[in-house]
Design brief:
By secondary structure, the protein is an alpha/beta fold. Helix content is about 45%, strand content about 20%. The radius of gyration is 19 Å and the shape is elongated.
């Protein structure tokens, strides 16, 4: 009986995990602010200031997700250079300051359990395809809203 129950629960988990189509709740790449590794630090600062975000995804020239750059990365860079002059920061690239291990992505077909686990550690979850190209992001807010709707439909 225990084995049957265990098998049933594994099957239910797989079914529930497969019910979520990440593409339904993600914000597509075209609608988000992002920077490229070869953009200047000035461009990145201006983009973040204009959009009011605390971090944005970093892509390479082929749109492959590399990591994210945060306000903290910019602050550390400004402190290390000793200059707040935007013109001065045109000689530095985003690739010089961002952290590759910041904001771990999930695959577009990742199970909901993985999406939830990753979202507990960061404000947004980058979503990538088989080539590791950015498809979009799932914000924690969008995920919670989706799960709330799902929960209210079940009751």
């Amino acid at each position: 009986v225990k084995r049957l129950w265990s098998d049933f629960m594994k099957e239910q988990t797989m079914v529930n995990d497969s019910l979520v189509n990440i593409a339904k709740i993600m914000i597509p790449k075209i609608s988000i602010a992002l920077v490229h590794a070869d953009d200047t630090v000035r461009q990145g600062l201006e983009k973040m200031r204009h959009n009011g975000y605390t971090s944005v995804p970093v892509l390479d020239k082929d749109e492959v997700y590399l990591g994210s750059v945060s306000e903290g990365d910019f602050l550390r860079h400004i402190l290390s250079t000793g200059s707040t002059d935007l013109k001065f920061h045109e000689k530095y690239k985003i690739s010089d300051i961002f952290r590759k291990n910041f904001c771990r992505p999930v695959h577009i077909f990742a199970p909901i359990s993985e999406l939830i686990a990753v979202s507990l550690e960061q404000n947004y979850v980058p979503v990538v395809d088989d080539r590791n190209c950015l498809c979009g992001i799932v914000t924690r807010r969008a995920l919670i809203s989706y799960l709330s709707e799902l929960s209210s439909q079940e009751t």
